[in-house]
Amino acid sequence: MYCHTSTPETDAGMAIEHTALKQLRGRTFGAPTIRRIYIPLPIARSEEGPQRERRSMGKKQLVSELKPGDRVDSYFSVNYKKPVSDYKYGSMFEFRVADKSGQTTVKYWGGQDKQAVQELFASFDREQVVSVKGEVAEYKGALEISVSEKNGGSVSRVPEGQYDLSQLIRAYDNIDDLKRRLAEIVYGVKDEYLRKLLIAFFKDEKFMDDFAASPASITLHSAAVGGLLYHTINVTELCMRVVDLHPELDRDLVVAGALLHDIGKVQSFKVTSNITMTEEGNLVGHIILGDHELIRRMAEIEGFPELTASKLRHILLSHHGRREWGSPVEPLFPEALAVHEADDLDAKLDNMITKREDAATEDDWIWDQKHGRLIYLK
Prior knowledge:
Layout: H1 8-14, E1 71-81, E2 85-87, E3 90-99, E4 102-109, H2 114-122, E5 129-139, E6 142-148, E7 154-158, H3 175-187, H4 192-202, H5 205-213, H6 227-245, H7 251-260, H8 265-268, E8 269-271, E9 275-277, H9 279-283, H10 286-299, H11 306-318, H12 334-358, E10 365-368, E11 373-376
Parallel strand pairs: 4-6
Antiparallel strand pairs: 1-3, 1-5, 2-3, 3-4, 5-6, 5-7, 8-9, 10-11
């Protein structure tokens, strides 16, 4: 537990409203503890104590490894920024940073020179990479990095080429194998029209390049370059096993629905130094974007059966399962239900496995907000 002697200044610092999303990785389960969190305030420069060993750009500190009291000297991608605001001792701002292991909030505590704080705030933007020096604190169950002159902290932009992108974004290394498996599945579809449709998508070189490079989410599951391809193959493989158990299902319809259920994510995500949503992704959503693309491709195939088209659209539109989860309709026939359940299962398993692998704690359990339960780590 990281503690500091109580003073009016530190108590005032603790009273500042915390606005970041909760970061629960590494949080232990058990009796609640009360922590007094030290938030450095730029009142006066104190004598510096012994310096901890600092990491160079080549030795990346991952978000998932940070613990209260740690000294931070590393680089991160900027997800978003909040405007400069005033607090009791000067001006401050906060921003969200990320790397391949997770996200956290950085709070910069400036002094009375508001113009200097504004200039620092304007010196970097979203999707750029910054070097952050500061200290890790825990506030209301969330870890954050506190940066101030008093703790020797700083924030500065890192030029392109001076950081390792693979440390900021995960990437699957078996993309070629996944592409080959996708092609095998496509050419195994017997229905003439569904096979033509799948070939129209996945033999389109630009679409396939974008599809294979896209993530499946920002943080929830398969959040990596190649994640959409990985997730799609998993969902399709699960569906094929379901059809083996229930041969009364229309195998080709299930396979086509599984392969195409997330095609709208190609237009929904953008990969730079981090994974973000496009304007289309935010404003329209991947389900509707996918439906529009599906309609367009089916219209280019002469004689495509109307009922097959309606069923395939229904699978895409219902694959989130419930209206409150984003689906315009809920699954109304078994093939649609199979795709929804396979999609949900793979997403949840991938998320829980990643949480277990990335847990930076010696405890046996961590609390996971998405699942609303403890995850056993052993």
